Amino acid sequence: MGDPSHYKGGDVEKGAPVDYFGTVHKGGVIVPVLMTMFLMLIVFSIERFVVIGKASGTGNVDAFVRKINAFLNQGNIDAANTECDKQKGSVANVIKSGLKKYREMEIEPNLDVDQKTLAIQKDIEEATALEMPMLEQNLTIIATLVSIGTLMGLLGTVTGMIKAFQSLGDSGASSSSELATGISEALINTALGISTSALSIIMYNFFTSKIDKLTYAIDETGFSIVQTFAASHKNKDKY
Asked: What's residue 1's pLDDT?
């Protein structure tokens, strides 16, 4: 960005910027901070794409949930376990943990049905609690960039405007071109700050909606596991 080709006459020190790159280069000390924040957003967004993608598993989450519910309705726990092994990811890990507890409770002689049901539910909740930190990691940074990006952009604009008007005061009204150049340099901070903030909002909402979808899938399937166990074993107790 500091290449002479971006300035009139090739003079980086005294020449006016002739394109966007030169304007960014002259934007002041806040611009590198804003660019660093923008790059942080890109890096953490890519990282969240990868992690949440792996958490979803190898197949469609909705289709996986439907298959598990179908197997549970049939009482086919082994098939549900096999489907979890195929799917992988956070959702499958939690469901598999619940199914393992399901099997353990089937042969547990010292608890009644309600206690066994509660134990399965607690196991699913604990497994979910272990998976959630991994899903939500680094989202706090993206959420922070939402507000900090705009504020840093405004700070850069204010400092740039102060510098521009100081230059005007020193050189007089005849140097209005310097004022215009200074204002454009200051406003580049606003553009970078707003861009960073806007993209941060989009990424944060996107990732939280993906996490909510995974959480809902876990809750729905976990509820089905608990209800299936309760219904089947209460019926057995009656006989």
From this structure: 54
